[in-house]
Amino acid sequence: MNLDDLLENVSVIGAAGKMGSGISTLIAQEIAGLKIKNPEKVYRLNLIDVNEAGIDGLRTYIKTQLIKIAEKTIVALRQAYDSREDLVENQDVIDAYVDEALGVLRFDTDMNLARNSGLVFEAIIENQDLKTDILKQLRQICPDNALFLTNTSSIPIGFLDEQAGLQGRIIGYHFYNPPIVQKLVEVISAENTRPELKQLGDELGKRLRKKLIPSNDIAGFIGNGHFSRDGLLGVSELMKLKHEHSFPESVYIINRITQDFLVRPMGIFQLIDYVGIDVFQSILRVMKKHLNNPELHSDLIDLLMEKNIRGGQRADGSQKDGFFQYEKNRLTGIYDLEQEAYVDIESLETGLDKKIGELPQEYLPWKKLVSNPDREALLSGYFKKLQESEGLGAELAVNFLRQTKKIGENLIEDGVAENKKDVNDVLMNGFYWLYGPINEYV
Length: 442
Ligand SMILES: NC(=O)c1ccc[n+]([C@@H]2O[C@H](COP(=O)([O-])OP(=O)(O)OC[C@H]3O[C@@H](n4cnc5c(N)ncnc54)[C@H](O)[C@@H]3O)[C@@H](O)[C@H]2O)c1
Prior knowledge:
Blueprint: H1 3-6, E1 9-13, H2 18-37, E2 44-48, H3 52-72, H4 74-80, H5 90-103, E3 105-108, E4 119-122, H6 128-141, E5 147-150, H7 157-164, E6 170-175, E7 184-188, H8 195-207, E8 211-215, H9 223-241, H10 247-261, H11 268-275, H12 277-291, H13 299-306, E9 324-327, E10 330-336, E11 341-344, H14 346-356, H15 366-369, H16 375-388, H17 392-413, H18 420-430
Parallel strand pairs: 1-2, 1-4, 2-3, 4-5, 5-6, 7-8
Antiparallel strand pairs: 6-7, 9-10, 10-11
The structure holds nicotinamide-adenine-dinucleotide.
Residues 13-14, 16-20, 48-51, 54, 123-126, 130, 134, 151-153, 174, 176-177 line the site of nicotinamide-adenine-dinucleotide.
């Protein structure tokens, strides 16, 4: 089956969500390109979500994104519309393109809208019963040869395939957030996944200009396989500190170590807040169940959830409170489990920074290194000095670096990743790390 033919009728389920809206925009862009080349053909992109208000927002979101895309690609668009003499000004071309793309969209809360789709993207919430149920419904509604790409970030594809009776017509196509910007897509074939679907995934990735990295079909895959264990490592290090420090102090220390001392874009607890403590908990649950590993669990995360401390993002992208309290996405407080309230971060900072100790002089923050061509050498020099340094911060950081490397190596040993490069690429692209966990620094 050829990708151009399949793109004639596509559906996205969970289209109004964070991932669904990005995937919808990418596919709308792709279909608009085909429509310009084949104006006589009828194309449909069906955007389905149970959230009515979300669908209204989606309409506006896609339109805004398409205008931006058209503005950025105006030269190529002018060429594509070469034969349209009525399009004189750039604005005429942009309007024509956006109209073209919006014209193929159909929005509904009703799954039946997907009935003619040969290609279906599933991006509903990470709940395996719900995903199974939706995929089963889609199997009955869609044509017998329809192909499914699921955005699950942790549920084994083989399990979804078997539960929904799709007989190999499903592949894991794990976009990262936000799908329009993030180059990485983790691709997960189950044992049963049909070869033509794998080829199709490869071709789609090329067209969308994504960096495809294969992961084996083991719960959590590479991305969450590493993130979940790194998060649990952060929690266990926090618990060790709790003997000598209060809860907010321990959170501060481990977060600062994992951000500044490890030169990451954010500390581990800020990252868990960003992803959502609820999402982190559900990833752990899925992995614990499928891997039959009781260690993939955290009492602390469960306790925070009981107290309704959940993190995550609001619809406008602003950060909700979790381990940290946020004002305009700046960290202002740290949750105190005993007081059940946030304590002011400034009241702790100075004293704790003294205890943590100085960073080596070679230190440069993540922001300064991210586009520095010499960053590998700079990082190597920095980590060498870090290992020679004394003090609580250096000691905790070097230990964390070693353990996080082990987590990466275990992903290969456990057969999740084929090699070191795939593990490092996922962390560097999907999580914006400057270096892979499997490195020569320790
Ligand atoms: N958010 C991320 O950073 C991220 C990254 C990679 C992968 N993922 C995965 O992508 C998927 C979606 O995550 P998200 O963050 O976009 O979630 P989200 O909560 O933002 O969106 C989920 C959408 O699904 C819709 N939905 C729920 N039940 C539905 C149903 N029965 N029928 C139709 N629509 C339904 C919701 O209304 C919502 O709009 C999950 O599998 C998640 O694990 C998320």
